[in-house]
Amino acid sequence: MSKAIELLQQLIKFDSSDKTVANETIDFCKQWLANEGLTSKIVTNNGFNMLICEVGQGDKTLVLNGHVDVVSGKATQFDPVIEDSKLYGRGSADMKAGVAAIMLAISELNQLDLKHTQVQLQLVTDEEVGGGNCANYLTNEGYLGDFVICPEPTQIDIGFQAKGILQIDIELSGSSAHGSRPWEGVNAIAKAFEVYNQLLTLPFASESTEFYDGPSINLAKIHGGEVYNKVPDACTLSFDIRYLPTQNKEQILKEIENITDGEIHINLEGPPVMNDKDEPYIQQLINTIKQHTNKDEVKLFGQHGFADTRYFSRFNVPAVEFGPSGNHWHGDGEYVEVESVDNYKDIIVAFAQNM
Questions:
Q1: Is 206 exposed, middle or buried (0-12, 13-18, 19+ CB in 10 A)?
Q2: Where is each Peptidase M20 dimerisation domain found (predicted)?
Q3: pLDDT at position 193 over 90
Q4: What residue spans define the domains of the chain?
Q5: Residue 333: CA atoms inside 13 Å, Cβ hemisphere, count?
Q6: Are the C-beta atoms of 166 and 241 separated by less than 8 Å?
Q7: Most buried of 43, 105, 253, 350 (most Cβ within 10 A)?
Q8: Backbone dihedral region of 316: left (phi > 0), alpha (psi from -120 to 50 degrees) or beta?
Q9: How far apart, in Å, do the first and last CA atoms of the chain sit?
């Protein structure tokens, strides 16, 4: 069993869906790195711990940003199992395999001549709940680099774009009346259905790009009505909109405002990730992947969800999702392909050496 897989098994045993345990996982990683002869520091923001470890010197910095937190899972999922060349467990794919690999990579890189490159390992504890306390904080504090790799599971391909996120609540008002005489009132729920149908036909909803058929529009919640015999005078629609990297949040809100007299409240917003596929570091990463795999073609794709890459992208730092092969992350059968973990680590080491 490889050193990376042994480390991965240890990481999976931490139920880091809990913030306290996630912080304990950071402490474990710090000690593991110390045993490898590496010095690291822990940064804390709002009770969330982050680890920073740097090797090499130079005017170019490669950032390896991984998260040790996971979504909740069954107790058995924190007891890793290897079967048919797959390692099963919560976080095996998302993304403790990637974390184990980049920890091994920085240990190996510490023994190599990196020429004019510095490699900075960042481990964070809140990506699964939005990243507002960790990656957001680190990037605001200037931990940016020249190129960023987040080892999310990508099947050794590259997620080089990601949709933005806009979560909104639309509060609609009507006027109440007796349920037997609905024409005497204004039904707020009926208004809500009209708004929903119109929203799906707005200009932004029909746009597409080379990598996306369109934005994602999810009617996530609807709340309205109190009793059967009363026309509802209030209704709230809640939307989770993932908009294209080429789209503008303000324009989307303007289009929605034009179809409703309701009050719009923003619950959560986050910028998209927009990289150019011809960006030199991305092309270098593609070539490195080809050299270490049997891939004739490395797939560039756009993510529908978001990762901590978005916090770097807002500072115009190219940031990509690139990680080992696995499946069913966040699900009961989550696994990572064992062979891909060491393969991924070797790609990271080779890329850093020649960045």
A1: exposed
A2: 162-260
A3: yes
A4: 3-162+272-353, 164-270
A5: 4
A6: yes
A7: 105
A8: left
A9: 30
Q: Topology of domain 3-162+272-353, per CATH?
A: Aminopeptidase (3.40.630)
| Distance from C-alpha of 119 to C-alpha of 134, rounded to nearest angstrom | 19
Is the pLDDT confidence value at 112 over 90? yes
pLDDT tens per residue across span 169-188: 999 999 999 999 999 999 99
Position 115 pLDDT exceeds 90: no
Q: Strands, E, within the chain: which ranges? A: 40-45, 48-56, 60-67, 81-83, 86-88, 117-124, 147-150, 158-162, 164-173, 216-224, 234-243, 263-270, 273-274, 300-303, 319-321, 326-327, 335-337
CA torsion through residues 118, 119, 123, 127, sign: positive
Q: State how far the Cα of 46 lies from the Cα of 134, in Å rounded to an integer.
A: 9
What topology is assigned to 164-270 in CATH? Alpha-Beta Plaits (3.30.70)
Question: DSSP string of 226-269?
Answer: --TTB---EEEEEEEEEE-TTS-HHHHHHHHHTT--SEEEEEEE
Contact 163, 324 (CB under 8 A): no
Of 53, 97, 91, 54, which is closest to residue 74 (Cα–Cα)?
A: 91
Separation of alpha carbons 51 and 103, rounded Å: 11
Chain center to CA of 57: 29
Give every strand in the sheet of 326-327, ordered side by side. 81-83, 86-88, 335-337, 326-327
DSSP class of 141: T
- 58 pLDDT higher than 90: no
6 φ, ψ (degrees, to nearest 5): -60, -45
Select from 191, 304, 334 the least CA-distant residue to 244.
304
Give pLDDT tens digits for 206-218: 999 999 999 999 9
* pLDDT for 150 beyond 90: yes
Give the residues across from 326 on adjacent strands: 336
